[in-house]
Specification:
This protein is α+β, with helices and mostly antiparallel strands and about 375 residues long. Among the domains are: about 90 residues, Immunoglobulin-like, CATH 2.60.40.1120; about 80 residues, Serine Threonine Protein Phosphatase 5, Tetratricopeptide repeat, CATH 1.25.40. It is built from 14 helices and twelve strands. Strands 1, 4, 7 and 8 form a four-stranded mixed sheet that branches. A four-stranded antiparallel sheet has the order 3-2-5-6, with no helix packed on it. Strands 9-10 form a two-stranded antiparallel ribbon. The radius of gyration is 43 Å and the shape is rod-shaped.
Length: about 375
């Protein structure tokens, strides 16, 4: 061999060796320590490492010392999620994996929990060698406030639940269930005037199905509930109305009149209804003269209130005088007129035939214009 060719041959062999070595792939690693909410190492938690620039997911777990490691990760951007079963405990995003030493991503669940508590309570955390922490005093105060909030939430949920079931029962005329549930709602929060008012209605509803001492006790409960509602919201006309009606059933007519009058003053648009209600209850309790006065007040508030006209006529029927010798009846002033006015307003109303019979019985004459008048639409009932 020509010695002059030897250097060239050796150089060619060296180049061949160099170009035959494959290029090494670039990888990185992640590791970290995980502390639980108790500040101690948290073992057996799953760490999910998800690549975000291209698809890829890798999983590992913390060991008994709360440490995790995952090597052989491709270079790129990752999200690291700490899981306890199906629950996400913490998450770190935008972590770039580079070649070289493992990237350290630690999780401190105690610190995370305390930071959330501090943020909600508006408390500034103290700096410690391990990072921001709450002092024992701060923790105690925050926990106390959390217990109060939890109790308030439980109270609110119970109040809403019992009020809803009570109102549903009241609408269905299941007065016993309504009274029990609304009483529980009122005991949960005595400052809710709507609850107190509807509790009064439930007691009054239940009292209609009872007698004797049991009825009296329920009516007293209704009166007390309405009084509490009025203490909380004294400008509600409907509360004065219902309170007055309960007082009438208790036999306290004078105070009931004052309440109904107050209701009419607070809401003149409903005055006719309030006085009509008073007249109806007084009629049922046998106080005919007072009932007639109440119906007159209802008519004064709404002259087109046909039912009030009819009930006034009925109330005045109790004052008709009969002459035993002649058999002639002498009605109280306004009796026939009340029936005639009812027929004028509702010539085909449900009480029209009875009104006509009453006029005939009393010796009155049906006005011809009533017979020939076209039926009028019944006035809307006052609610």
């Amino acid at each position: 061999m020509d010695k002059r060719l030897l250097p060239a041959i050796l150089a060619a062999l060296v180049l061949a060796v160099i170009f035959s070595v494959p290029a090494q792939a670039q990888f990185g690693a992640l590791e970290g320590d995980v502390k639980g909410v108790d500040g101690k190492p948290a073992p057996n938690l799953q760490v999910i490492i998800t690549r975000t620039d291209i698809k890829g997911e890798y999983k590992t777990k913390t060991d008994k010392k709360g440490h995790y490691y995952h090597g052989g990760l491709p270079l790129g951007m990752f999200t690291i999620k700490l899981m306890d079963g199906d629950k996400v405990m913490d998450i770190v995003q935008n972590v770039r994996v580079r070649p070289g030493d493992p990237i350290a991503i630690h999780f401190d669940l105690q610190q995370r929990q305390q930071m959330a508590m501090a943020a909600s309570a508006g408390v500034k955390m103290q700096q410690t060698p391990e990072g921001p922490r709450l002092s024992k005093e701060q923790m105690a105060k925050i926990e106390e406030e959390a217990k109060k909030r939890s109790a308030e939430r439980a109270k609110f949920e119970k109040l809403n639940t019992k009020f809803k079931t009570g109102m549903d029962a009241l609408a269905a005329k299941n007065c016993e269930v309504a009274a029990a549930d609304l009483k529980e709602a009122a005991d949960t929060d005595p400052t809710q005037h709507v609850v107190q008012a509807n509790l009064g209605e439930a007691y009054a509803c239940l009292a209609k199905t009872k007698s004797g001492e049991e009825r009296t006790t329920l009516l007293k409960g209704a009166v007390e509930a309405y009084k509490k509602a009025l203490e909380l919201k004294g400008d509600d006309a409907s509360y004065h109305n219902n309170y007055g009606l309960a007082l009438v059933q208790m036999g306290n007519t004078e105070e009931a009149k004052a309440e109904l009058t107050k209701a009419a003053q607070l809401d003149p648009t409903q005055a006719a209804k309030f006085y009509y209600n008073l007249g109806a209850v007084l009629t049922n309790t046998g106080k005919v003269d007072e009932a007639a006065d109440a119906f007159r007040q209802a008519i004064a508030a709404d002259p087109t209130y046909a039912d009030a006209q009819y009930q006034l006529g009925i109330a005045l029927m109790g004052k008709v005088q009969f002459d035993a010798k002649t058999g002639k009846s002498t009605p109280a002033p306004g009796t026939i007129e009340a029936f005639q006015k009812y027929l004028e307003l509702q010539p085909t109303g449900v009480n029209a035939e009875t009104a006509k019979q009453m006029i005939a019985t009393l010796g009155g004459t049906l006005q011809t214009e009533i017979k020939s008048e076209r039926p009028k639409a019944a006035p809307k009932k006052k609610q």
